[in-house]
Design a protein that fits this description.
116 residues, mainly alpha, 76% helix, membrane, DoxX, transmembrane helix
């Protein structure tokens, strides 16, 4: 079970850090079309979400790995889960697929349940 939790934590951590960094970067027109949700948000809002994703990505791995305040790991996972609920609602409103958001939410729930 511990190995499964580590795999899920690392996948969540890497995925959210990369996704968060991506929200700070301006992409070309082709990428803008794939991320049409960007037009619903201001640049500051996207950067705030990106910062939360980066912090959550590190928070879901580092506290448990270092043993320093390990309670932060399930709390970070819970925060990422809340972000995914919000993201799924945005995609649903835009009539876009949101399966990835639900998978990431399920992974976050696994971490929360396993680490609390």
């Amino acid at each position: 079970m511990d190995l499964l939790l580590w795999v899920v934590q690392i996948l969540l951590g890497v995925g959210f850090v990369l996704s968060g960094i991506g929200k700070f970067v301006s992409f070309g027109a082709a990428m803008q079309e794939r991320q049409a949700y960007r037009e619903d948000f201001t640049g500051a809002q996207l950067k705030a979400v990106g910062a939360l994703e980066v912090l959550g990505g590190f928070g879901v791995v580092l506290p448990w790995a270092t043993g320093i305040a390990p309670i932060l790991t399930p709390l970070a996972a819970a925060g990422l889960g809340l972000l995914m609920i919000g993201a799924a609602l945005v995609h649903r409103r835009r009539k876009e697929p949101f399966t990835v958001n639900l998978v990431l939410l399920a992974m976050a729930v696994i971490v929360v349940a396993g680490r609390f």
